[in-house]
Specification:
Helices cover about 35% and strands about 20% of the residues. The protein has about 110 residues and is α+β, with helices and mostly antiparallel strands. It has one domain. A three-stranded antiparallel sheet has the order 4-3-5.
């Protein structure tokens, strides 16, 4: 479970989680559509990284292949959600103030059906 704190930060509340599998075609189609939207937003970020990462110390949301900058994650998310309510593949990240080497521990999920 993830809890949103008043200042817009996210904190882990519990390390317990449940994994379920579904074979429902409607749910699978919905998940594939969300993944495609997320992939388009990730591709947009890669193509516009120089533009995005010059906003140091800010949060950004990519939604509908468009950039939204704000002081908090919640505010960036809300800006993206208002402009692109149908985009279930939007995401938010923070751009650290200092430019340092970083290791990111996430990768894109590739789903084939």
């Amino acid at each position: 479970m993830i809890k949103v704190i008043d200042n817009g930060d996210f904190a882990a509340v519990s390390s317990e989680f449940e994994v379920t599998c579904t074979t429902d075609p409607e749910e699978l189609a919905k998940a594939c559509a969300q993944h495609e939207q997320f992939k388009r937003n990730c591709d947009w970020l890669e193509a516009h990284a120089a533009e995005v990462y010059r906003h140091r110390g800010k949060h950004f949301c990519i939604a509908g292949q468009e950039l939204f900058i704000a002081d908090s994650a919640a505010e960036a998310w809300a800006l993206g959600a208002v402009a692109h309510a149908q985009d279930a593949g939007r995401f938010v990240e923070y751009i650290p103030q200092d430019k340092l080497p970083r290791i990111y521990a996430y990768q894109r999920l590739v789903v084939s059906l």
